[in-house]
Design a protein that fits this description.
This protein folds into two domains: 11-170, Rossmann fold; 186-364, Rossmann fold. 40% of the residues lie in helices and 14% in strands. It has 16 helices and 13 strands. It has helices at 24-34, 51-56, 74-86, 97-100, 104-108, 123-126, 132-141, 151-161, 186-191, 213-226, 241-251, 267-272, 295-302, 334-345, 348-365, 368-379; strands at residues 11-14, 41-45, 62-64, 91-94, 114-118, 145-148, 166-169, 200-204, 231-235, 256-260, 276-279, 307-309, 325-327. The strands form two sheets. Strands 3-2-1-4-5-6-7 form a seven-stranded parallel sheet. The protein has a six-stranded parallel sheet with strand order 10-9-8-11-12-13, sandwiched between helices. Strand 8, helix 10 and strand 9 (231-235) form a beta-alpha-beta unit. The longest helix has 18 residues, at 348-365. The radius of gyration is 22 Å and the shape is elongated. It starts with 10 loop residues before the first strand and ends with a helix.
């Protein structure tokens, strides 16, 4: 340990999800790790293009596996045990419980006294498959705490975890200094030929059916019938792009802009460019395809924008209904989605108040700093 004190802790973070690879879980794990004292964490992660440059810029040690995937093989068991001893770790965090929490027994044999494992929402789909509940039960039994991101995910996972471990809420956070009301959307509007008075609705998300861009496009002619100059920004890329572009032509939706994927530094300006943020997500495939939370709602709220969410999974937990935004009763219904959008576009004072309330809520409950402190307390 750093000072030789028995009260000092050092955590071995074992994760398949870590930068420079991009993604939601990668952001989650790295954001929590970067907010810990540099000498209190050691990361074991897979190899990835650009890893050497990324790792050299971090204050904490990162050990890379030789391949792009870590599995609980005999080789990995030996490796993590050796890392725990070499770095004098007495805590461990599995960035995603499955399948890495299967490494818990070997870590206990090598000085790890307390372990937590995180779930992220996708588990709510596969836990319904044959044998999956038994696997999750086995994983949970090996660790001291399993974290969940929403009450929805807790409700799905809890039957598999009953009486074997403690459950704790550890959702993703928002970088409130990056996503901020002071960010301007004027450059985005200028690039798209939109003036400051144009009503703008934005959807920022991967282009997949669960996110509901198709229903939003079908709803758009009804919005334009009331606001003929309104613009809809579809921000993101994904396998549904061609289908959505064809749908725009088929339903005659005017004022729809496909922006494509945008870089992380540019993302706040797209939230700032809109008056209302909408992602009418829906559950698909009998519950196998479901929204875990929906960080985009919280990022938009942090930029003081009112949000409209769908009902899938934990998405409603990212909105305070009637206070920071609205939840569409039927996200599969274009008239319902259009009605929610019009409700906010027609009452700008209410929409503005929702945006300000959303910012205050994110600052109070969703900052990475506060969640990093919660992470430390779970490992204490």
């Amino acid at each position: 340990m750093t000072d030789g004190s028995p009260s000092t802790t050092r955590t071995l973070v074992v994760t398949n999800d870590f930068p420079p690879r991009q993604g939601g879980i990668q952001t989650y794990v790295s954001a929590l790790v970067r907010r810990q004292p540099a000498d209190s964490v050691v990361v074991f992660a897979p190899a990835w293009d650009g890893a050497a440059a990324y790792d050299s810029a971090q204050a904490f040690p990162i050990v890379r596996h030789r391949t792009s995937l870590i599995l609980p093989t005999s080789e990995i068991r030996r490796r993590v045990g050796a890392l725990a001893r070499e770095h004098d770790c007495n805590r461990a965090w599995f960035g995603a419980a499955a399948p890495l929490a299967l490494l818990a027994p070997v870590l206990r044999d090598n000085g790890i006294e307390r372990m937590i494992a995180s779930t992220h929402g996708h588990e709510t789909g596969w836990v319904r498959l044959p044998g999956a509940r038994q696997l999750l039960h086995r994983l949970a039994a090996e660790v001291d705490v399993v974290t969940y991101i929403t009450e929805f995910t807790r409700g799905v996972l809890e039957p598999a975890l009953a009486d074997v471990t403690k459950l704790a809420h550890l959702p993703p956070g928002v970088d409130v200094s990056t996503f901020h009301p002071a960010v301007t959307g004027a450059p985005v509007r200028r690039r798209l030929g939109l003036d400051a008075a144009t009503p703008v609705v934005a959807c920022v998300s991967r282009l997949v059916r669960r996110k509901g861009q198709d229903v939003l496009i079908r709803a758009w002619p009804q919005v334009r019938s009331r606001f003929p100059d309104a613009a809809l920004l579809i921000v993101g890329s994904g396998p549904d792009a061609n289908r959505l572009q064809t749908l725009v032509e088929r339903v005659g939706a005017q004022g729809v802009h496909f922006v494509g994927g945008v870089s992380w530094p540019d993302l706040p300006s797209y939230y700032a460019a809109c008056d209302v943020f909408v992602m009418p997500c829906r559950t698909r495939r009998a519950g196998l395809d479901v929204e875990g939370l929906g960080m985009v709602y919280l990022e938009a709220a942090a930029c003081a924008r009112p949000v409209i969410a769908g009902t899938s999974g934990g998405a409603p937990e990212a909105v305070r209904e009637g206070e920071t935004g609205l939840v569409v009763d039927d996200p599969r219904s274009p008239p319902s989605v259009a009605a929610s959008i019009l409700e906010l576009l027609e009452d700008r004072d209410r929409a503005s108040a929702m945006g300000l309330a959303g910012r205050a809520w994110v600052e109070a409950q969703w900052t990475w700093d506060s969640l990093a402190a919660r992470w430390r307390s779970l490992l204490a």
